Amino acid sequence: MTVAPLTPPQPLLEVSNLCVDFPSEGHTVFAVDDVSFTLAQGEITGLVGESGSGKSVTSMAILRLIQPPGKIRSGKLRFEGQDLLTLDDDAMRRVRGGGIAMISQNPANSLNPVMTVGDQLTRVIRLHLGLSRQEAYEEALRGLRQVEIHSPERRMVQYPHELSGGMCQRVMIAMAMAPKPRLIIADEPTTALDVTVQKQIIHLLDQLRQRHGVGVIFVSHDIAVVSQIADKVLVLYAGRAMEQGLVNQVLTAPRHPYTRALLASMPYLGASKLRQRVPVIPGHVPNPTAAIKGCIFAPRCAHRIDACTAERPVMVPVGNQGAVACLRAEELAEAPSRLTGVRI
Amino acid sequence: MAHMTTPDPALTTDKFGTLDDESRPEHTGFLAGALRRFRRNTLAMVGLLLVILLIGTAIFAPMLTTHDPNAIAIADRLTGPSATYWFGTDNLGRDIFSRVIVSARVTVTVGFGMVTLAMVVGLPLGAVAGLYGGSWIDEVIMRSCDVFIAFPTVILAIAIMGAVGTQPIDIGPFTIGNVAKVIVVGGIVLAPRFARVVRSSVLKERPMDYVEAARSVGASDKFVLVHEILPNSIVPIVIQASYYFATAVLTEAALSFLGIGVQPPQPSWGQMLSQSQAYIFGGDWWFSVFPGLAIFFAMVGFNLLGDGLRDALDPRGAR
């Protein structure tokens, strides 16, 4: 399927020390601050965090679609060994869609309301693959079959408002897959859908990954969903990476106090009403500006020591492929956690 | 959405009475719904009728006249409406009915010309300004437009027309006639206003998800503008075009009234009003009333049509 020799030494995507700034009155918000991760071919990485943690900004940054005045201050983005930040606009446009595709949060609004599904699909296909109208039509139909949409011929002539949210998302996935990208960025692809459809979409993404070997960045605030699909997970908080590693490890044996608190605050079905309330993390997410010296989670952390506010913790490798940015990670790992892992 | 074979009783009635058509889920398509709303709007239909009447008159003018519009019959000067002269005669004994009919043609020509020119110039300007909204490109385009918009349409048209004069201009093998000149002047006056409308509707669509989605699959600025944004912002543009038609008609009438618009022997409503000025208080009411009514109905027609289009195409708008 893939042409490039993607043997282990070269990952599909390499994000290193990515920083994205948004200047606002008087100060600059560091929406993404020193985030690094790699993604191999056929791998699914979950980007997890609360609202404003920088998940979406990270994914938009990979496509270089940060809206001004926001900008990528520093860092490296390597896609198939190619430095995305030095590409000219035309080359970058070919990467968008062609190499890296995006599936967005709001399937119903992400399709052009005045154009039929078929027109939109064939347009994208012709843009990237340069096929004739007839070939593009066939290709579009094939794409719709691949996403297992019901009666694809009919969908081709329908308008987005005639489709359900789940169908729109399938169309979006078909559109994303049409130019045969090697990486898909799925930004909260299931958030607007109900649980059954959510499951189907996740299954579909997983299938596409297996069949075509595409890498997937799966952005979600929903840890349960990420646990179902991702191989690896990166936990973000206020624009900084807190912890990363294999999904089972991070979610069953979280090292970072934030990850633990996040997992502990997940409600789950079957909890007795008599049990205590869902635990919450006290305080609120700070605006990440230059003023914050130490660990950005320190003000809300139950395990804070003086050193935490003085010095910014760096990502330290732990276990198998994991890393955590906490001064006390090792020490806390020894202590028995009163928090249990995620119930999958 | 599947078509229901039998009407769902819950859809046709509820405990508050019969549900209005508008609140029924849309399964007929946007244009069908708009057409239905338009047809149920009496004023809109009146507007459409007036506009059709005007355009029909313009097309078939030579067949509708009863006299030669320029034939002078001094013996019959200033006679009131009669079986021979339906709208009476003017100070030179010319048949006012025939002159009103023939003038419809110049009105429609000038109106179409002005609006088309305003669109051809204003649409790309506004679209580009909207696409790069907030940037220096937007600033340059819109501030230049503001210079024109700062003056009332008619005043600006008079100023330009006054500066270039009413005589035909020869440019190489082409002659820019008097009517063409009026069209160009009107187009210049209306284009910046049009650009502003286009810009605002492009700005409204620009942050939409589908635009971002298009960019994320590698669409260029031009592609996004032409294929994504413009098809979605066409509705306010069409509505505005209808209103500008009325403005164009009025501008032409004003210029002709002042003698710097359409020149004799070609009659026009504004010109006829101008000629009738001296006779308004002399009891020769027909001289001024009929061309005045013609302008009035043309204006009302385009305005009602514009209102009707607005209400039909944008059902969420204030009613």
Give your account of this protein's structure.
The complex is a heterodimer of chains A (344) and B (319). With 344 residues, chain A is α/β, with parallel strands linked by helices. Chain A has helices spanning 55-62, 89-98, 117-129, 133-146, 152-156, 165-177, 195-212, 223-229, 247-252, 257-264, 306-310, 329-334, and strands at 13-24, 27-39, 44-48, 71-79, 82-83, 100-103, 183-187, 215-220, 232-237, 240-246, 316-318, 322-324. In chain A, the strands form 2 sheets. In chain A, strands 6-7-8-3-9-10-12-11 form an 8-stranded mixed β-sheet, sandwiched between helices. In chain A, α4 (133-146) crosses α6. In chain B, α3 (42-64) crosses α11 (285-313), α4 runs antiparallel to α9 and α5 (136-149) crosses α7 (178-205). Chain B starts with 8 loop residues before the first helix and ends in a 6-residue tail after the last helix. The longest helix of chain B has 37 residues, at 221-257. Chain B is mainly alpha-helical. In chain B, the strands form 2 sheets. Chain B has a two-stranded antiparallel sheet with strand order 1-2. A two-stranded antiparallel sheet of chain B has the order 3-4. Residues 1-27 of chain B have low confidence and may be disordered. The chains are: A alpha/beta (344), B mainly alpha (319). The A-B interface holds A 63, 65, 93-98, 101-102, 104-106, 109-115, 123-124, 127-128, 159, 161-162, 172, 175-176, 179 and B 1, 26-27, 29-30, 208-210, 212-220, 223, 227-228, 231-232.
